[in-house]
Amino acid sequence: MRVLAAMSGGVDSAVAAARAVAAGHDVTGVHLALSAKPGTLRTGARGCCTIEDSHDARRAADVLGIPFYVWDFAERFTEEVIEDFVDEYAAGRTPNPCLRCNERIKFEALLDKAIALGFDAVCTGHYARLSIVDGRPELRRSVDGDKDQSYVLASLRADQLKHAMFPLGASIKPEVRAEAAERGLAVAEKPDSHDICFIPDGDTQAFLTKKLGERPGVLVDDETGAVLGMHTGVHGFTVGQRKGLGIDAPAPGGRPRYVLSLEPVSGNVRVGTAERLAVREISGERPVWPSAMPLDGVTECVVQVRAHGGTAAAQAEVVDGELVIRLAEPLRGVAPGQAAVLYRDDLVLGSATITSTRP
């Protein structure tokens, strides 16, 4: 099988490519150039998107003895990921840029080009398990629960997953690093990337302010309607946020305040106590079914609403094209713009983008 291995320059994608080679596939490595000005990205690369990473990816490909190319996806990345990120924050939502990158760059733009060039599959270093059962893909959590990335892959369609390979899904990270060292890959001890790759210094608020400018508004007590302070833009906040609110006094009884909702038109940021964060129902738009199996009526499942969050028991169904999730117990800090991913045990059932919540 002809396989295109997406090589970020980190240890995971290098070992994934190595395993594809070891499995007997005809493998070609490709690094995606995602920045129009790569010199502005951080130095001391940590596994994603820098010039140093492209060099690390090339060296890994040389060790594996496979052809290697750099493809320029900077314009597409800017439009589909960076501009989407900014637009979502401006609209009072909290996006996940890694999920969007997987969806629109690695498994849309990249996969489409790979198929057009005659490749059968795209191989990546994601920690998730993928199998084909009765002609349908099944996406499952990784064996390594700490590294599991099924959440950020849950927006992929079945036709995309049929052309995907995730060779690391049955491994834990220490095994992957050990294998990299055994294979002579210099990235064996390279640190993982944790930052948003297009925000070099990690200051998301400063990045958004530069893009959007200041949009002054007020912080409002959700219970009393009292104005508690001023802010420079709703893009500086996310639902569930506690720190950095700029409010001097706590709520009555010394209780901390949290962001409850964002109103981009009025500029209001509504805040309140933790109890007022609790929701029992979540609605999501654009449902995706990775196994091409839409929910059939009310379905028992668990839901995950943050990339590194836990799960909550729920019932889910599709109502008028929207995914409606009713929680068994209240859940706090559910932010519109994030993905709600449904699981049965370790199997991904589906996902949708959160649009609203109800107590």
From TrEMBL:
One matching Pfam family: tRNA_Me_trans_M
EC identifiers of the protein: 2.8.1.13
Location, primary (coarse class): cytoplasm
Subcellular location: Cytoplasm
The name this protein goes by in its record: tRNA-specific 2-thiouridylase MnmA
Similarity section: Belongs to the MnmA/TRMU family.
Any one GO cellular component localisation term in the record: cytoplasm
Residues that hold ATP according to the record: 6-13, 32, 125
Active-site residues from the entry: 101 (nucleophile), 197 (cysteine persulfide intermediate)
UniProt entry keywords in alphabetical sequence: ATP-binding, Cytoplasm, Disulfide bond, Nucleotide-binding, RNA-binding, Transferase, tRNA processing, tRNA-binding
Site feature Interaction with tRNA, where: 126, 338
InterPro entries, A to Z: MnmA-like (IPR004506), MnmA-like_C (IPR046885), MnmA-like_central (IPR046884), MnmA-like_central_sf (IPR023382), Rossmann-like_a/b/a_fold (IPR014729)
Species whose genome carries this gene: Actinocrispum wychmicini
Function: Catalyzes the 2-thiolation of uridine at the wobble position (U34) of tRNA, leading to the formation of s(2)U34.
Single annotated GO MF: ATP binding
Reaction(s) the record says it catalyses: S-sulfanyl-L-cysteinyl-[protein] + uridine(34) in tRNA + AH2 + ATP = 2-thiouridine(34) in tRNA + L-cysteinyl-[protein] + A + AMP + diphosphate + H(+)
Domain tRNA-specific 2-thiouridylase MnmA-like central span(s) in chain numbering: 205-272
A GO biological-process term: tRNA wobble position uridine thiolation
Gene: mnmA
Ranges where the record places region Interaction with tRNA: 147-149
Ranges for domain tRNA-specific 2-thiouridylase MnmA-like C-terminal: 280-354
